[in-house]
Specification:
The complex is a heterodimer of chains A (114) and B (116).
Chain A lengths: L3 E4 L2 E4 L5 E7 L5 E7 L5 E9 L2 E4 L6 E3 L9 E3 L8 E8 L9 E2 L3 E5 L1
Parallel strand pairs in A: 2-11
Antiparallel strand pairs in A: 1-3, 3-8, 4-5, 4-9, 5-6, 7-8, 9-10, 9-11
Chain B lengths: L2 E3 L4 E5 L4 E3 L2 E3 L5 E8 L6 E7 L7 E2 L2 E6 L4 E6 L8 E9 L7 E3 L3 E6 L1
Parallel strand pairs in B: 2-12
Antiparallel strand pairs in B: 1-4, 3-9, 5-6, 5-10, 7-8, 8-9, 10-11, 10-12
Classes of the chains: A mainly beta (114), B mainly beta (116).
Chain lengths: 114, 116
C-alpha cells in the first residue's frame, strides 16, 4: 500500500512551458484534490474531484487543468507556466464520507518557474 | 463561505512544557469535521487529531488534545510534554459534511518551535 504518490519531487520550468504533475493513490478513495502551498498562505485548493469523470474548481484554479479518468489517478496540468505558479504542490485523497474521512497527502512537488 | 483562521503565525515552547495553538472558524453549518495536521521539515502532512462537530467530548490522541467550543467556533490544539520532534507547522482544517460539499479549508498555519 503506497498511499498517495506524486511525481516529480522537484521541477524547474521556464515561463511558457507546460507540464503535468502526476498523482496516484491506491486506497480506492473517491475524493482527490490538488493544493498549492505558499509561505504565509497555508494550503489553497486548486481543483478537486469526487470520482472518475467529475472535477470541480477550488479557490485558485486559474492556469491549471485537471482530469480524472480513473479512480486512482488525478494529474494536474500547467498549460503555460508563469513565475506566479512557483510553489509547493500537494495532492491528497480521502474517502468521500464517513468517520475516516481525513485526507492523506502525497510528499509534494516543489515547482520553480523561471 | 467557510473560513479558518489561525492567528498565531509562530509559537515557542520549552521542551516538556505545554503549549496551545489557536484556531477559529466561521460556518453556518451544523455538521462538519475539524482536523489538525502537522507538517515537519520533511514537508509530509500528517494527521494529528480529528473532531466531529456532533461530539461534545473533546478528542485526545496521547499528548495531543483539543478544546472544541462549537458555539464559539473555536478549535484549539493542546500539546502536553512537548518534545523536540513536535517542532513543525501546524494547520487547522475544516470539512463540511453537507452532501455535495466536499472541500477542505485550511488555515494559514502556526509554526511551532520547541526549545531544548
Amino acid at each position: 500500500n503506497a498511499g498517495v504518490t506524486q511525481t516529480p519531487k522537484f521541477q524547474v520550468l521556464k515561463t511558457g512551458q507546460s507540464m503535468t504533475l502526476q498523482c496516484a493513490q491506491d486506497m480506492n478513495h473517491e475524493y482527490m484534490s490538488w493544493y498549492r502551498q505558499d509561505p504565509g498562505m497555508g494550503l489553497r485548493l486548486i481543483h478537486y474531484s469526487v470520482g472518475a469523470g467529475i472535477t470541480d474548481q477550488g479557490e485558485v484554479p486559474n492556469g491549471y487543468n485537471v482530469s480524472r479518468s480513473t479512480t486512482e489517478d488525478f494529474p494536474l496540468r500547467l498549460l503555460s507556466a508563469a513565475p506566479s505558479q512557483t510553489s509547493v504542490y500537494f495532492c491528497a485523497s480521502s474517502l468521500l464520507a464517513g468517520h475516516y474521512n481525513e485526507q492523506f497527502f502525497g510528499p509534494g512537488t516543489r515547482l520553480t518557474v523561471l | 463561505a467557510q473560513t479558518v483562521t489561525q492567528s498565531q503565525p509562530e509559537m515557542s515552547v520549552q521542551e516538556a512544557e505545554t503549549v496551545t495553538l489557536s484556531c477559529t472558524y466561521d460556518t453556518s453549518e451544523s455538521d462538519y469535521y475539524l482536523f489538525w495536521y502537522k507538517q515537519p521539515p520533511s514537508r509530509q502532512m500528517i494527521l494529528v487529531i480529528r473532531q466531529e462537530a456532533y461530539k461534545q467530548q473533546n478528542a485526545t490522541e496521547n499528548r495531543f488534545s483539543v478544546n472544541f467550543q462549537k458555539a464559539a467556533k473555536s478549535f484549539s490544539l493542546k500539546i502536553s510534554d512537548s518534545q523536540l520532534g513536535d517542532a513543525a507547522m501546524y494547520f487547522c482544517a475544516y470539512r463540511s459534511e453537507r452532501s455535495g460539499t466536499y472541500k477542505y479549508i485550511f488555515g494559514t498555519g502556526t509554526r511551532l518551535k520547541v526549545l531544548a
